[in-house]
Amino acid sequence: MNFSSKLLEQAVHEMSQLPGIGKRTALRLVLHLLKQPKEQTTYLAAALENFRSNIKLCQNCHNISDVALCEICSSSKRDPEIICVVEDIRDVMAIENTSQFKGLYHVLGGKISPMEGVGPQNLTIQSLVEKVKKEKVKEIIFALSSTMEGDTTNFYIYKQLEDIDLKLSTIARGISVGDELEYTDEVTLGRSIINRVPFENSLSR
Fold first, then answer.
1. For residues 101 and 140, what is the distance between their CA atoms, to the nearest angstrom?
2. Are strands 103-107 and 79-86 parallel, antiparallel or unpaired?
3. What are the Cα distances from residue 93, in Å, to 83, 107, 152, 161, 184?
4. Which terminus of the chain has a lower count of CB atoms within 10 Å, N or C?
5. All domains in the chain, ordered by first residue
6. Is the Cβ–Cβ distance between 87 and 150 less than 8 Å?
7. Does the pLDDT value for residue 203 go beyond 70?
8. Alpha helices in the chain (DSSP H)
């Protein structure tokens, strides 16, 4: 792709570093910004800078937050005895959109994937185990994607918690194998949470 401007080339290059954005899409976005009032680009740049500089991870669940304790963990309307274990923030948003879950979350920050060099030590698994041991947790719901990596992560956490007296369950398999939670429709996802099953039952599949 030939550019008549080094500034344009640099802007397109940086935009194309975003996931799912190729060079052509990046060029279209950059040219769109160029046509907008200068203030719009300034607001966008300021919002991204503010986000990157001030965003926090909740000290309890590792969800992204503006403050030390996210609004879900600090809400008196949530049940702290039920924790839903998810891969990342997108899964929290997907489940929250169903309005079917009233417990708390624990964001792992990924899933175990030896092929990608991600092991248990790279995730927040240990803090989950410590949380369960210290607090009055009655149920852990595994809500990771139904992939090999998701199942491996579920089983690893299950082995860490199997000697602790609590209920371990997994969302119902209304979600197709290989599907990511964020792409599942709200009705299906909501039903899969309501109709969750004991995790031990999933081991015999």
1. 13
2. parallel
3. 15, 11, 23, 26, 12
4. C
5. 6-54 (1.10.8.420), 64-202 (3.40.1360.10)
6. yes
7. no
8. 6-15, 23-35, 38-54, 89-96, 125-134, 148-161, 186-194, 199-202
